[in-house]
């Protein structure tokens, strides 16, 4: 792949073109593994009703996530804090852009915590729009949400997916002190493609932030994710996985990039399921504790299950460390 294949300013005409379908048995324009099954069940409607009742935003809706119906059917959603307008306009993301979004809503923390109680969530994922207009990037507001959830829902575990707070590590520390069980910040893509895919965040600043989280005295698992199918090479993906491992990332998520609208970057390649499997194998070979890779994987997809897996792996590692590996 070369940079010439990556549209820095893609035209709407080009946006309608899809890459070659590598699935010879597929009858449509998309490979079989990118066809979503029809989902039924009352939970789809009850989850949506709770979110509307408490006037909450979700990244599921605003980013047009392909897993929205699946997650809603499991009575879960990823809460989007600080409004639904972002101060950045990344090439892959469908969330609305605004230079001066509305001020944070003071009652959002209690509305979210009450919805968590009503949905009976045991694990909550909180994400946020980038708020470069706020002095702390919205860090304190996220902490208020975390504290409110814990007050109303003792025992519920919390995962945060933050912005980079424009590189302000003191804002990162503000969130860290609230001790979320998982702290996620996505690297999104490989080094070469970062300037086009992301509006303001940089590859190296992402690694610095992740390293800072890992070095914190606050106990938390470190998570990061990337999209593939944007024109990256296998070697570049391997480099990114190694860089994340060196930064101390415990959990990686990896999924197929899918163009959310004509205004966004086009898909360059449909990635084969066996390619995802090969990246998974490589990640474990370089020391990543857990990787969740597949066409429809997104940052918060099956987040509760991932937390359970990583806890079990860590417990097993602690036992081996304390008593010695029984196989040796």
Can you walk through the features of this model?
This protein is of the alpha/beta class and 328 residues long. 38% of the residues lie in helices and 12% in strands. It contains twelve helices and nine strands. A seven-stranded parallel beta sheet has the order 1-4-5-6-7-8-9, sandwiched between helices. α6 links the parallel β4 and β5. α5 packs parallel to α6 and α9 runs parallel beside α10. The longest helix is centred in the C-terminal third of the chain and has 21 residues.
Task: Tag the structure with descriptive keywords.
328 residues; alpha/beta; seven-stranded parallel beta sheet; two-stranded parallel sheet; 12 helices
Q: Which regions are unreliable across 5 or more consecutive residues at pLDDT < 50?
A: 1-15, 319-328
Oligomer: single chain
Strand content: 5-15%
The shape, in one word, is globular
Determine the structural class based on helices, strands and strand pairing. alpha/beta
Average pLDDT level: 84
Helix content: 25-40%
Described by strand count, sense and barrel closure, the largest sheet is: 7 strands, parallel
Summarize the SSE layout with pairings:
Layout: H1 12-15, H2 42-53, H3 59-62, H4 68-73, E1 78-81, E2 85-86, E3 96-97, H5 108-119, E4 123-128, H6 139-152, E5 157-161, H7 169-176, E6 182-184, H8 194-197, H9 203-215, E7 221-228, H10 234-247, E8 251-256, H11 273-285, E9 290-293, H12 303-323
Parallel strand pairs: 1-4, 2-3, 4-5, 5-6, 6-7, 7-8, 8-9
Helix pairs in contact: 5-6, 6-7, 9-10
